[in-house]
UniProtKB/TrEMBL annotation, chains A, B, C, D:
Keyword Lipid biosynthesis: no
CDD domains: cysteine_hydrolases
Pfam families linked: Isochorismatase
Keywords for this protein: Signal
PANTHER family the record matches: OS02G0276400 PROTEIN
Protein name, as recorded: Isochorismatase-like domain-containing protein
Record organism: Oryza meridionalis
Signal peptide: 1-17
Keyword Acetylation on entry: no
Amino acid sequence: MTSHLALMSCLLVLLLSLDKFLLHYLKKRWLSPRISTSPSKSRRSMAAAAAATGGGAKWSETAMLVIDMQMLGWGWLMWDLQKDFVDPAMRSPMLVDGGQAVVPTVAEAVAVARERGIYVVWVVREHDPSGADVEIFRRRYYSGGKGPTVKGLKGADLADGLVIKEGEYKLVKTRFSAFFATPLDSVLKTSGIKNLVIVGVQTPNCIRQTVFDAVALDYEKVTVIIDATAAARPEIHLCE
Amino acid sequence: MTSHLALMSCLLVLLLSLDKFLLHYLKKRWLSPRISTSPSKSRRSMAAAAAATGGGAKWSETAMLVIDMQMLGWGWLMWDLQKDFVDPAMRSPMLVDGGQAVVPTVAEAVAVARERGIYVVWVVREHDPSGADVEIFRRRYYSGGKGPTVKGLKGADLADGLVIKEGEYKLVKTRFSAFFATPLDSVLKTSGIKNLVIVGVQTPNCIRQTVFDAVALDYEKVTVIIDATAAARPEIHLCE
Amino acid sequence: MTSHLALMSCLLVLLLSLDKFLLHYLKKRWLSPRISTSPSKSRRSMAAAAAATGGGAKWSETAMLVIDMQMLGWGWLMWDLQKDFVDPAMRSPMLVDGGQAVVPTVAEAVAVARERGIYVVWVVREHDPSGADVEIFRRRYYSGGKGPTVKGLKGADLADGLVIKEGEYKLVKTRFSAFFATPLDSVLKTSGIKNLVIVGVQTPNCIRQTVFDAVALDYEKVTVIIDATAAARPEIHLCE
Amino acid sequence: MTSHLALMSCLLVLLLSLDKFLLHYLKKRWLSPRISTSPSKSRRSMAAAAAATGGGAKWSETAMLVIDMQMLGWGWLMWDLQKDFVDPAMRSPMLVDGGQAVVPTVAEAVAVARERGIYVVWVVREHDPSGADVEIFRRRYYSGGKGPTVKGLKGADLADGLVIKEGEYKLVKTRFSAFFATPLDSVLKTSGIKNLVIVGVQTPNCIRQTVFDAVALDYEKVTVIIDATAAARPEIHLCE
């Protein structure tokens, strides 16, 4: 009961503060606040996304951004866990499970996108072994040619079960936002893309920053499919 | 009691999902979650910011960004209120009061910054009367040469009680983030600025986007003084 | 004769090094290497631009950028002349005459653009009195609240005979390129603009940088009308 | 004789139009207008660069950008040659020779940089097999997963004799300028870099755009070593 009140309180506060643009993003959450890995759920989410992006006629103007689905994509948190900044009480396997659990759902969302002719963009972080292109507060994690998602190392690979097909685009980024210091905006706009559907991990950072930059860069509809995103706990999706 | 639990739950969820970088930003909130307009409080906040930015020796490397303190700066929400997207139950004078109440606190924060030789940057939105440089989801608000914060109209002026002094910089922006499509990063970096202290209104949008872009752009310390920011309700500061 | 050979040699060298994209830009120059201030000439140039941008049907997808037509727009050179970097032999009134002479031609080009429904964007430099947003190698020109094209001072006004009409956009920039740290790309793309016609002063710096950024930003056709641009001497248009 | 006059005329015109900033760049050319592949020449050029960047004490604040030294780096021109846009009379082996001849000089310049502790950045173009991230006027060159400098294909490799060492940075770009839509500015500024020395191929496009963006982005000294750059013919270096 208390937990329910907590969520409602949080949603109300959010509702008051966000602009109209973000409402359909919120409404989706409001209606389906639970993370589900059910494939059929994912199809239903895509249908909701279809409605949000203006119906079936517009798939050629829609791209799906698949964010950070690397083996260590959610490993940033694990990495941080090993350091001493997160409260020990929170070091639970749940964290990792959340990331792994989302893989089949993302795979399903991508399959639906491919059926509909949506342009699929795989957004991955890759860093130089020196860490020179990492956020400064994370550089201490890099030494001896190692660190999270270093180019060419195993941690930079896509999670098992996810494959980039011909005609799909792999975008390398170095910050939270997929648009920061990358050619993504050019790739999308010259392909006639006006609407985005976003799936992947780490709602509170990477997905949020990508969503806000997409709005700043004039994409018309930006939809987040929440049952194909993961964060440490379900409530984050409601309450980031 | 329930409300207290709601806030705590929200904070815990947040804590789990944010990177270490944002911790000092969070910690400030954790310790002082109430919005205060008391000048002494503001001085104490600046002292906390001093600690966060590495002590008194670094004021010449610190800038204060004063965000959206225009007469209609928080008017976006009012504007939206008149349209039909926000739930009628939330159309309260509180909203506007929140914005107005913050003015003396911001003035005090600026006064402290000036004493310490911190570089003050006044970030304001100004739009073309045509609305051609507004986010697309807001363009419908512009017609007949009028709309929120149109260049040269009264709504674009700073709130009463706030004045730009010689040697301070006025930056015009057109998006949430003060860094988006503006020379702000150049102005700050060529002035030797490494740390930012942020005050102003609209935490969930403008301040958050500015904070995240500042991190992406490698500013070392980014501090938000929460008793000099306003949103519709205090809880937003805890729970955006 | 020798001079003619010099120009030809220069053109050949250029031809070899430029990409296909720039050819129509070059061809225009090749065919009409003389700067003319004749209004009828300007109409003919617009017709050539029409051909270059795909015919009359596309005017709604074309914008005209009018670059740096401020009273001191070409004053940068004058300003520099007073310093000791340009060879004294070159300090001739010709320099200024070049700038002033172009005004009626630009006015004519703008008139033709308006007739055709082309979106007109006035690009002007405006700087903070402190010089904090000027290129670093020019900051020494700013002190006591004065310097070239300071916001609100007379030097920032448009040259006599040029007026911004309702529905046209005034863009403030702080670097050579009109796209650098400005919302220009957003303003143009959300207005459906795909092609650019450029007129104004200072071919070797501001216009060239704007042209190259426009190419990088995926504008399809970029045309420079050379009889409505000015630089210190006609040959610069051939040989920058 | 005529040729000498042509060059002089071109230089004079350039001199008139360029800003003071570019003068040391010009002066180097004025003094050493011939392309040389002699290693000792390269050492002397580095000494000149040392003077330009403020002496030996500043090497830790200087980076060397090595531009487009890929096997097909100058292949863009060859590629274009096979199409029908360049005058047939100019299809000479000289073009390719120019590119190949520069390799030992660049290798020598890099060796000198390493000795001095200058941070070396290897800037390479790499494109998606689909061509989705190429300039639009070049997309027709991409089909069936092939095209110039496609990621993973041989043409994207560095020219023989050039090797990236540990601690050096490889930057992937998709436009002329090394700064366009890349993390280069962040990598350099967070490494404390204030001055740039530039070597490589294709002066009129890639190097020039990179130089101008570096100026716009507030780098203090930008030096181009002309005997380690190549374009189709030596005169281009004087007269672009």
